[in-house]
Structures are given as C-alpha cells and as structure tokens.
Task: inverse folding
C-alpha cells in the first residue's frame, strides 16, 4: 500500500479510529527501544506488587486527558 493510499484510508477513519491509530503508531515507534522496554518492565513489576489504580482514579485521569484534548 502506498503512502497516498494510507493517507486516503486514514482520512476516512473516525476520530476514535485515528486516535487508536496514533497510539498504535507511537507504540510501534518505540517498541524496540530498550528504555521503553525497561519502563514497561518496571511498570508491570509495580502492578504485580499491588500498586494499582482505583476506578475513580482512572476516571479522573481520563477526564483530565479529555479536557486537554488527548
């Protein structure tokens, strides 16, 4: 698929689909970065040790991100 075809396809996506695509492309751009892998490993260890967020915390974070347009 050419870049022109990709652009045309992306332009036809909904805002939610473009947001997902942007997050996916960001993930792909750093998936092989050792620093990123280290951060993911550390965060997983924190979760495994019991450091988790409550639903109200997640809702507040989500609302703050929406307010910022993210």
Result:
């Amino acid at each position: 698929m050419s870049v022109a075809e990709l652009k045309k396809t992306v332009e036809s996506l909904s805002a939610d689909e473009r947001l997902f695509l942007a997050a996916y492309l960001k993930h792909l751009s750093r998936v092989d970065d050792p620093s990123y892998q280290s951060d993911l490993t550390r965060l997983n260890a924190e979760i495994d040790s019991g450091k988790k967020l409550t639903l109200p915390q997640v809702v507040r974070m989500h609302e703050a991100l929406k307010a910022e347009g993210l």
User: Anything to note?
Assistant: The mean pLDDT is 93. Residues 15-30 form the longest helix (16 residues). The CA atoms of residues 42 and 48 lie 10 Å apart.
